[in-house]
Amino acid sequence: MLVAAAACPCPPLLVPEVAAGAAPELDAARAACTDALGVLAASRPDLLVVVGPDDGAGTHAYPAGTPGSFRGFGVDLDVRLGEGDGAGGELPYGLAVGAWLLGRTGWADAPVEGRGVGESLAPDACLAEGQRLAGRADRVALLVMGDASACRTLKAPGYLDERAAPYDAEIARALGSADTAALRALDPGLARELKVSGRAPWQVLAGAAEGCAGLSGVLLHEDAPYGVGYVVATWS
């Protein structure tokens, strides 16, 4: 059963070594992510699953100990997802950021594994994957990595789209209030147009929370410093 969740953004810029001179601009987001992981630890999970965007249309399992790297961003920095043999290849960037967050906070409260979710995975499949993950242990926590739109400003990766700001506001509201119905209703086509990386992971979260009465949400952070929406929220 799902007992807690944290939604965090997954830009590699969250890692100070990648951001370099711009690192202080995301200090507030990093602090909020640290607070969110504290909520996960307080839930005393038996298992933590880090869910994040991945290539393709399906899902991919990343067992404990799977390595990740930020070398593709010009930084000699490697991470590892918890303790284990890591026989699942290399972490995609979103899960690598999640592994960095866990390493930064010294996570040792439960075993960790990763689940990559393809950007084009259909909503029904996302919901079913969430239900499956929630059934993995008596007390499951999810760390859900994903960004909102990348179209908030003229200099954003996706240029300016007037739909982006209201879209991100609704995402922040839904994540901050544990509104699973709103997350289930997210449209993959619109998410793709607005370059939203978090749509599928958030729908996995909605599926995991199905039947979990009493979960409440708290919005910890919402901003778009580079024209990309970053939201941090917790469910417990």
How would you characterize this protein structure?
This is Class III extradiol dioxygenase subunit B-like domain-containing protein. There is one protein chain. This protein is of the alpha/beta class and 236 residues long. Helices cover 33% and strands 22% of the residues. It contains eight helices and nine strands. The strands form two sheets. Strands 3-6-2-7-1-9-8 form a seven-stranded mixed β-sheet, with helices on both faces. Strand 8 (217-223) and strand 9 form a beta hairpin. Helix 4 (123-134) crosses helix 8 (199-208). The mean pLDDT is 95.
Tag the structure with descriptive keywords.
236 residues; alpha/beta; seven-stranded mixed sheet; two-stranded antiparallel ribbon; 8 helices; 9 strands; globular; Class III extradiol dioxygenase subunit B-like domain-containing protein
